[in-house]
Inverse folding.
C-alpha cells in the first residue's frame, strides 16, 4: 500500500535559517505529491504539488522536487520567517483517486525571531 | 477556494456517548470527506460523503460507528458513536472544490475530541 514518511519534529529554527523537511514515499504507480501546511488556528491548505518525476513545486519561497529515483519530495526554503511557523504535511495521491490522500504524520516548525 | 467551518472546534466527551460534528462549506461542492488524525499519527480518510446517497467508508471504518449525513451540497455531519478513549482524535472535514486539480483539497480547522 501507499505510505509517506516525513522527518520527525519539532523543528526549531532562527529567522532567515535554511529549512529542509525530508519526505519519502512508497506508492504503486505514479503518484502525485503534495505539501500541505496548517498555520495555527487554521485548516490545512495546499502549499505546493508536483505531479510527475522531476517536477518542482514552488510557492511562498518553498520548493520541493519530485525525485522518483529516491522516492523523495523534500521541502526546502532558503530563508524562513516567523510567519512560516506551522505544521507541514507531506502527502501523495495515486491510483486515480485524487481525493484519497495518504499523509505523513506532520512536522511542526517553529521559527524564532 | 472554499471556506469550511466545523463545529465544535473541540469537546470533551464521556465514554459511551455520541457526538455529532458539523461541516459547513461556503459554496456547493460535490465531494466532501471526513478524515481522522489520532495523536501522533497521520491523517486517515474515514469516508466520502455523497449528497443523495450513502457515504462510502474506507477499510476499518463502519457506518454504525461513524454515521454520516449529507443533506445538501454545502453541509455534512459526522457522528462518532458510543465513544471510547481510543476515539480521541482530531476530525477534519475536507472538500474537493471541483477544479480538477489532483489532490487539491480544502480542509476545515478540525474538531478536537477528547474522550474520558
Amino acid at each position: 500500500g501507499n505510505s509517506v514518511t516525513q522527518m520527525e519534529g519539532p523543528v526549531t529554527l532562527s529567522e532567515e535559517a535554511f529549512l529542509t523537511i525530508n519526505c519519502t514515499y512508497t506508492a504503486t504507480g505514479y503518484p502525485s505529491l503534495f505539501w500541505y501546511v496548517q498555520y495555527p488556528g487554521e485548516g490545512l491548505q495546499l502549499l505546493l504539488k508536483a505531479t510527475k518525476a522531476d517536477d518542482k513545486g514552488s510557492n511562498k519561497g518553498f520548493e520541493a522536487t519530485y525525485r522518483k529515483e529516491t522516492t523523495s519530495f523534500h521541502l526546502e526554503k532558503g530563508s524562513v520567517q516567523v510567519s512560516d511557523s506551522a505544521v507541514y504535511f507531506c502527502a501523495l495521491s495515486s491510483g486515480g483517486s485524487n481525493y484519497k490522500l495518504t499523509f505523513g504524520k506532520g512536522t511542526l516548525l517553529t521559527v524564532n525571531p | 477556494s472554499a471556506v469550511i467551518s466545523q463545529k465544535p472546534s473541540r469537546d470533551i466527551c464521556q465514554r459511551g456517548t455520541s457526538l455529532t460534528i458539523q461541516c459547513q462549506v461556503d459554496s456547493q461542492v460535490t465531494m466532501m470527506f471526513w478524515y481522522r488524525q489520532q495523536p501522533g499519527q497521520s491523517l486517515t480518510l474515514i469516508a466520502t460523503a455523497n449528497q443523495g446517497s450513502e457515504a462510502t467508508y474506507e477499510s476499518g471504518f463502519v457506518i454504525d460507528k461513524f454515521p454520516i449525513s449529507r443533506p445538501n451540497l454545502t453541509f455534512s455531519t459526522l457522528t462518532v458513536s458510543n465513544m471510547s478513549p481510543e476515539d480521541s482524535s482530531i476530525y477534519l472535514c475536507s472538500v474537493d472544490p471541483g477544479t480538477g486539480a489532483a489532490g487539491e483539497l480544502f480542509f476545515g480547522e478540525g474538531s478536537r475530541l477528547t474522550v474520558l
